[in-house]
Design goal:
The protein is of the alpha+beta class. Helices cover 29% and strands 34% of the residues. It is globular, with a radius of gyration of 15 Å.
Length: 161
Amino acid sequence: MSPLVFRLFHRVRGFYWRVAKPTTYGVKVLIVHAADAERVLLVRHSYGDRSLWSLPGGGYRPARETPEQAARRECVEELGVELDPSALVLAEHLTANGGRQGHLKIVRVYTSSDGIRPNGEISEARWTTLDLADLPDDPPVSKWVHSALKAHAQARHDGGM
């Protein structure tokens, strides 16, 4: 799909959330580089705030898949990345945005290669260091990136790789 279709869908979805006020379930995915555990993959979406560096992710239905399964599916759909079989829920957040109540899980996965093939939902994808120092021009970064990096550091400290 083209970036224009994703932008249109984003607006329609926002209108629906304001009217229906649904409960949603979502995942954001911290993708750790296969050969360098000090690097993670950040994306800019082709909709919403296109200057914001964020994590890939999306919605899921708990009756159909786990957060870990949803994270893997979203990474393959959005980025075409190959992933190791393991996945770990790093953090859970309750959110309220645009009239909806959300249950967001941040999931960590490791790649099995560094190849990336973004679809139209992603306008840019970039491997960056854990301290984000190599992002150009001090750009805006999603609060979910910061939450994921903090939880990832804690998990590594606690022995959760």
